[in-house]
Amino acid sequence: MINNLIRNSVRFIVLVLLQVLIVQNIRLGSYIILFPYVLFILLLPFETPKLVVLFASFFIGLTIDMFYDTAGIHAAACTMIGFARYYILKLLSPREGYDPGLIPNVESMGPVWFITYSAIIIFIHHLFFFYLEIFRFDEFFRTLLRVLLSTIGTFCFVYIVQFLFYKADRNK
Q: Does the model's pTM come out above 0.85?
């Protein structure tokens, strides 16, 4: 338990620093904006209580809001995916359920499961974030294009991070 807390705290700090020091300065145009900090919420262990997921999601969003000066938009979008995470995990649950102690990553769940899980979560985050940011429907299709391109960009970034930091067990 303490090991999980330390691992998640370090992941929190590293992802926030990555977001605000490096990724914030990457310009891929106005349509592709990367938010790799959602990986923190994606990688919370399966048995994390729903309330803890909501508080952790809100806290990482609020932290990013402080650096971006965005008045709670990140906190709202992160809280939304923190809420939706339980239902998505339930939807994607294997018949026998999740093994205790696993975290939802490529190594433990396989690439197909992780691609589905992370794509849904990232899409919900970006959909909620960009429509809250614009807060009108007169640019509906332009915003939807931003959502789709940013989702693809963030997903690619998250998937690459999975291969850089999570080594598959070669003895399987």
A: yes
